[in-house]
């Protein structure tokens, strides 16, 4: 077979795949359109007409963001805030998800738009922005002659389609006649420079805007909150103590269907509080932990498909909460309410609430700190260190060596800079508006919806890196929470843990080991036809979805009998771990083999038990003839786990195999792999 044949087959496969997945694509898209939460006050009468809302609220600048995990949202808000503070522009900052764009061509040309958009998957828009992407696709030439815009993309060069969404938006907008102010800004997480990329883009763009809009700067700018603030004296039923959504306030009534299951939809606006019915440590090693957690979803309408992602909603640990409260001299008991100053503003969390609840449940307080954030705090810095803070906030490399290298979070950094003394006088409202919200973390589901429709399994490596020099542990919020729950449930010793949590949750909501979760549908799917062979590559925690895949086939054979085993295509799993102590689910694979016989095979690369590293891609290369034959038979390839190096190395290895066994040139082989990706025959679930 020559390369054109192979490509032709792959393209046919692509059409077939799209056809076959039509329903799941539709479901995926529909799933993302959860309603605005009226309690969070999106806009007073629920209109999705952008221009109408702008006009009604008398705004003269528009910032639109598309964000998956809140980073783009964060930058959009910072940008809007800066335009308001420095130039008194009346800025509306809005989620692309919440509006239709049909009237964008009627936007007055003196109202510029700034887009802030992150990229996911194969250069895709964030889930919530699919309506915007659709709008872009339908634009004609000259349709947006009225529009002046600037655009900042967020991405990670580790991924093949770097900033794919922002680049596509730029292209489509320009083709429709819109005029770009400045240049496309491209944030790169991969190089860890998103913050610096933003600052560079922002400075250039704002300078141009000043000329374009003839803006003059207000010199003695003071922080002014977008929210009205009132302190309250009593905790009522409608006061949030950290409930993940309004449905869980004491006075609210949860909805149930006729089977007694709690009604959804469960998504970023409302999670399900799921009991953890089983949890265990998977590693034998002393220095690392990996926690297996099983969530019971039988009390809810949640369904999932093998290959989906589970979102787990964390809270902050006691240690981080009390340190944060101490640095800013905050009283956790303070009860307050926020009111949006106009209908385009969304409240950042459920209100009324308490300071303590916000710090524990709603704000991301432990992550790395940005130079911009430090800059916002300059006017509140103690006099004795003010000059140093100004220097730090302006000097990229000094900031990197003094703050980033030490892995400080905000409280660590401020304490360290002020010799362990607190920072009084930082406005609480500034903290609320400046810090990102604490968002759910995603896990590749490691169970099968066929084999366990009522439970969802997650396999999570615990992020905890101590540093003896600084005494600072870099701690993963969610994974250490899972470890705490695991130890409590198994009556383990919690004293040696780096952090501890309020496991009871607000008003006892999470008692006895429950956590808020929701499911996000993915497109990572086994072929529907089980006679198609599959090659699965997942070292480390990357093995998670493949446990689900194998359990799925295992359950099919149990159900359909051994005759069906004969027709089943081969499943080969390439797995890698450091040694035997972190070999995940070791005993289980043996069990699956007993039923799946020679149709399932696990090939293990232990990297640290010999002098030379042996990785999954070395195992692939050793078996190139066999892999090549499987591909010829139409095998699907799946890769899961580390995106930074592993996924690229594996893609190379597969291309090499194709080139060596099919006589393709290197670049032809790479094209074939790309075509396979487009056809859904080479699927990645990488992070
Ligand atoms: C689609 C998808 C699927 C995934 N599937 C899995 C899976 O199956 N299993 C799995 O284990 N993970 C998976 N992940 C990763 C997972 O979502 C989380 O990112 C991971 O578990 C860490 O979450 P955390 O809340 O514990 O850490 P976070 O609190 O989010 O911290 C993230 C990292 O930053 C470090 N850090 C914390 N504070 C600082 C600081 N001040 N300065 C510098 N660094 C800091 C932490 O040590 C940690 O390494 C997946 C991710 C995605 C996107
Ligand atoms: N940035 C990185 O380099 C990197 C690598 C792996 C995982 N991670 C991240 O670290 C977290 C924990 O990972 P984990 O526990 O799943 O993995 P892990 O246990 O650290 O690694 C699993 C196996 O993969 C091997 N490996 C390392 N680099 C590889 C490569 N380029 N190609 C193929 N195999 C490779 C490891 O070998 P050795 O460790 O012996 O080299 C180990 O045997 C995840 O969030 C993941 O994204 C980052
Ligand atoms: C699962 C996953 C897939 C991603 N895919 C891409 C990609 O294809 N191209 C890219 O440039 N960045 C990609 N990124 C990086 C994100 O765009 C980047 O981290 C961004 O800052 C996230 O912004 P958000 O929090 O607003 O969604 C990906 C990140 C994750 C976690
Ligand atoms: C509410 O809707 C009406 C009719 O659609 C519109 O005229 C009005 O301006 C809207 N008001 C706001 C505040 O959006
Ligand atoms: C709680 O519900 C009762 C009855 O529905 C209602 O009268 C009361 O005002 C509600 N209280 C709060 C705090 O919402
Ligand atoms: C909350 O409850 C108090 C007392 O019941 C009531 O006065 C107030 O209006 C309620 N607020 C909201 C937003 O429902
Ligand atoms: C608060 O909610 C509880 C539970 O719904 C209810 O029994 C109680 O009457 C409510 N209290 C007030 C003051 O509304
Ligand atoms: C600990 O922190 C120091 C100082 O910030 C840094 O140079 C060093 O690399 C860190 N060590 C580890 C093991 O991360
Ligand atoms: C960029 O992507 C790689 C691979 O997923 C990941 O290791 C790295 O942490 C990402 N960068 C950030 C800042 O998220």
UniProtKB/TrEMBL annotation:
Topology class, membrane: Single-pass membrane protein
Reaction catalysis annotation: 2 oxidized [cytochrome P450] + NADPH = 2 reduced [cytochrome P450] + NADP(+) + H(+)
Superkingdom of the organism of origin: Eukaryota
Listed cofactors: FMN; FAD
InterPro entries: CysJ-like_FAD-binding, FAD-bd_FR_type, Flavdoxin-like, Flavodoxin/NO_synth, Flavoprot_Pyr_Nucl_cyt_Rdtase, Flavoprotein-like_sf, FNR_nucleotide-bd, NADPH_Cyt_P450_Rdtase_alpha
Binding, FAD: 441-444, 459-461, 476-479, 687
GO cellular component, one term: mitochondrial outer membrane
Alphabetically ordered keywords of this record: Cell membrane, Endoplasmic reticulum, FAD, Flavoprotein, FMN, Lipid biosynthesis, Lipid metabolism, Membrane, Mitochondrion, Mitochondrion outer membrane, NADP, Oxidoreductase, Steroid biosynthesis, Steroid metabolism, Sterol biosynthesis, Sterol metabolism, Transmembrane, Transmembrane helix
Compartment(s): Endoplasmic reticulum membrane; Mitochondrion outer membrane; Cell membrane
Amino acids binding FMN: 67-72, 118-121, 154-163, 189
Keyword rRNA-binding tagged: no
Domain Flavodoxin-like: 61-206
Segments forming domain FAD-binding FR-type: 269-513
Cofactor note (record): Binds 1 FMN per monomer. Binds 1 FAD per monomer.
One GO term (biological process): ergosterol biosynthetic process
Residue positions binding NADP(+): 288, 541, 607-608, 613-617, 649
Cited Pfam families: FAD_binding_1, Flavodoxin_1, NAD_binding_1
Any GO molecular function: NADPH-hemoprotein reductase activity
Documented EC number(s): 1.6.2.4
SUPFAM superfamilies listed in its UniProt record: Ferredoxin reductase-like, C-terminal NADP-linked domain (SSF52343), Flavoproteins (SSF52218), Riboflavin synthase domain-like (SSF63380)
Stored PANTHER family: NADPH--CYTOCHROME P450 REDUCTASE, NITRIC OXIDE SYNTHASE-RELATED
Family: In the C-terminal section; belongs to the flavoprotein pyridine nucleotide cytochrome reductase family. In the N-terminal section; belongs to the flavodoxin family.
Function: This enzyme is required for electron transfer from NADP to cytochrome P450 in microsomes. It can also provide electron transfer to heme oxygenase and cytochrome B5. Involved in ergosterol biosynthesis.
Name of the protein in question: NADPH--cytochrome P450 reductase
Protein's organism: Maudiozyma saulgeensis
Gene this protein is translated from: NCP1
């Amino acid at each position: 077979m020559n390369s054109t044949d192979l490509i032709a087959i792959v393209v046919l496969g692509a059409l077939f795949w799209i056809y076959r997945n039509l329903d799941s694509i539709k479901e995926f898209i529909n799933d993302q359109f959860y309603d605005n939460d009226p309690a969070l006050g999106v806009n007073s009468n629920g209109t999705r007409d952008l221009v109408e809302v702008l006009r009604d609220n008398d705004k003269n600048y528009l910032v639109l963001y598309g964000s998956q995990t809140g980073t783009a949202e964060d930058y959009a808000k910072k940008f809007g805030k800066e335009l308001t503070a420095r130039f008194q522009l009346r800025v509306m900052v809005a989620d692309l998800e919440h509006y239709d764009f049909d009237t964008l061509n009627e936007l007055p040309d003196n109202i510029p738009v700034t887009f802030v958009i992150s990229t996911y998957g194969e250069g895709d828009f964030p889930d919530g922005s699919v309506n915007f992407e659709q709008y872009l696709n339908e634009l004609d030439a000259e349709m947006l002659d009225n529009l002046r815009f600037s655009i900042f993309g967020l991405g990670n060069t580790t991924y093949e389609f770097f900033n794919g969404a922002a680049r596509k938006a730029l292209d489509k907008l320009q083709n429709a006649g819109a005029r770009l102010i400045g240049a496309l800004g491209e944030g790169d997480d991969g190089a860890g420079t998103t913050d610096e990329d933003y600052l560079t883009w922002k400075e250039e763009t704002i300078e141009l805007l000043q000329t374009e809009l003839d803006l003059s700067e207000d010199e003695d700018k003071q922080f002014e909150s977008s929210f009205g603030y009132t302190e309250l004296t009593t905790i009522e039923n409608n006061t949030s103590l950290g409930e993940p959504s309004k449905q869980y306030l004491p006075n609210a009534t949860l909805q149930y269907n006729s089977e007694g299951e709690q009604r959804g939809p469960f998504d970023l606006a409302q999670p399900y509080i799921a009991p953890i019915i089983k949890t265990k440590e998977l590693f034998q090693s002393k220095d690392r932990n990996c926690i297996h957690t099983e969530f019971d979803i039988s009390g809810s309408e949640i369904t999932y498909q093998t290959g989906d992602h589970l979102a787990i909603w964390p809270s902050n640990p006691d240690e981080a909460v009390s340190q944060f409260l101490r640095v800013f001299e905050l009283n956790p008991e303070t009860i307050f309410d926020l009111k949006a100053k106009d209908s385009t503003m969304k409240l950042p969390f459920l209100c009324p609430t308490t300071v303590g609840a916000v710090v524990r449940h709603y704000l991301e307080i432990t992550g790395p700190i940005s130079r911009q954030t430090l800059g916002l705090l300059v006017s509140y810095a103690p006099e004795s260190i003010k000059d140093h803070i100004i220097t730090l906030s302006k000097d990229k490399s000094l900031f990197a060596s003094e703050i980033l290298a030490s892995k400080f979070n905000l409280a660590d950094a401020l304490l360290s800079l002020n010799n362990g003394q607190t920072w009084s006088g930082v406005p609480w409202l500034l903290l609320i508006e400046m810090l990102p919200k604490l968002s759910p973390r995603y896990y590749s589901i490691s169970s099968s919806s066929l084999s366990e429709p009522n439970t969802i399994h997650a396999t999570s490596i615990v992020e905890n890196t101590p540093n003896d020099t600084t005494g600072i542990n870099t701690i993963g919020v969610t994974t250490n929470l899972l470890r705490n729950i695991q130890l409590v449930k198994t009556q383990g010793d919690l004293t040696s843990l780096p952090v501890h949590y309020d496991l009871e949750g607000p008003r006892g909501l999470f008692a006895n080991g429950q956590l808020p979760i929701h499911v996000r549908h993915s497109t990572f799917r086994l072929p529907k036809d089980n006679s198609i062979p599959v090659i699965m590559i997942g070292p480390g925690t990357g093995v998670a979805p493949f446990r689900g895949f194998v359990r799925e086939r295992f359950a099919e054979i149990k159900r359909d009998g051994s005759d069906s085993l004969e027709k089943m295509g081969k499943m080969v799993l390439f797995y890698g771990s450091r040694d035997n102590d972190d070999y995940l689910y070791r005993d289980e694979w043996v069990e699956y083999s007993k039923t799946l016989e020679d149709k399932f095979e696990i090939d293990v690369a232990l990297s640290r038990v010999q002098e030379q590293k042996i990785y999954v891609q070395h195992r692939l290369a050793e078996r190139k003839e066999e892999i090549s034959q499987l591909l010829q038979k139409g095998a699907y390839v799946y890769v899961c786990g580390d995106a930074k190096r592993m996924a690229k190395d594996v893609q190379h290895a597969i291309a090499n195999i194709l080139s060596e066994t099919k006589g393709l040139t290197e670049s032809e082989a790479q094209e074939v792999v790309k075509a396979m990706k487009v056809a859904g025959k080479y699927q990645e679930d990488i992070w």
